[in-house]
Amino acid sequence: MPSSVMPMSSGTVGSPTPAAISALGLRKSYGDKVVLDGIDLHIPTGSVFALLGPNGAGKTTAVKILSTLVTADAGQIRVAGHDLATAPQAVRAAIGVTGQFSAVDGLITGEENMWLMADLHHLPKREGRRVAAELLRRFDLTEAARKPASTYSGGMKRRLDIAMTLVGDPRIIFLDEPTTGLDPRSRHNMWQIIRGLVADGVTVFLTTQYLEEADELADRIAVLNDGRIAAEGTAEELKRLIPGGHVRLRFADPAAYQNAASALREASRDDEALALQLPSDGSQRELRSILDWLDSAGIEADELTVHTPDLDDVFFALTGSSTVPNRSHQPKEDAR
């Protein structure tokens, strides 16, 4: 049975989908070290885009460039419809940035942190207080608002950090390793917050080494390795790039199993479990082909299971990393 390969989207600036962020030929070096070697990005408005990569791959450098904190060596970049090179102030007015290390001032209260951010955005005092109170309520921080931020848990500090980022009502938010150091419950709470932002039309640019995080949240994922985009697509598209996918057919009737095994000679057999394993990318076309063949042969499988590689496999295959980031601890951030 022939296999099929799902075409990958180019993800480049030439795509017709309106972009919140686009980059063509983005380059950055530090001395002799090339950090970003001509990457292209196209991130649609109102989506979550995740940038994966091993330590030192350049994820944080990409965020710093796109958020105007670092100047690119080369590349055509537009953020929120503005040319990054000629209108950096307009870009800054449209975006918010939350790094893996909280910007919260622990010496003052959560409420005072919010007021300070409102002042930095030049909001009138009454408006600033109103926005601060609303965001504290939205992020379930009202009860703790008048307590020193140093007393907050890690999850509370991260929620306050994002609330502070939203004071200026940005339409694009850069989240650089947003769940670093959080326990699983706080991490899942943060995911819900991110989903809520996107539901409100906010575009989220997420850098992470937490593969489950990218799988859960991202509409599209790019894997950055050695300064280049090794692959880009949806989570399912990326998984189909890696060999090892298969369909498992299990039979309750030994005769049906033997008939299927005789006809499908390329399948791996498990005589004890009465199961056959066929190489497959799990695409709808292949599954339909298998089911049509079973129907035409008058053979009924009792169970059909699709197995595809996960993002761990994708990360390992595309980056050549000797260590695939796992789901139980947070690795260190990029050197840059």
Describe this structure in words.
This protein has 336 residues and is of the alpha/beta class. It folds into two domains: 19-233, P-loop containing nucleotide triphosphate hydrolases (Rossmann fold), CATH 3.40.50; 246-307, no CATH class. The protein has helices at residues 59-66, 88-94, 110-120, 125-138, 154-165, 184-199, 211-217, 235-239, 254-263, 284-297, 311-319, and strands spanning 19-30, 33-44, 48-52, 74-79, 82-83, 95-98, 172-176, 203-207, 220-225, 228-233, 246-250, 268-270, 275-279, 303-307. Strands 6-7-8-3-9-10 form a six-stranded mixed beta sheet, with helices on both faces. Strands 2-1-4-5 form a four-stranded antiparallel beta sheet, with helices on one face. A four-stranded antiparallel beta sheet has the order 12-13-11-14, with helices on one face. Helix 6 links the parallel strand 7 (172-176) and strand 8. Helix 3 packs across helix 4 (125-138).
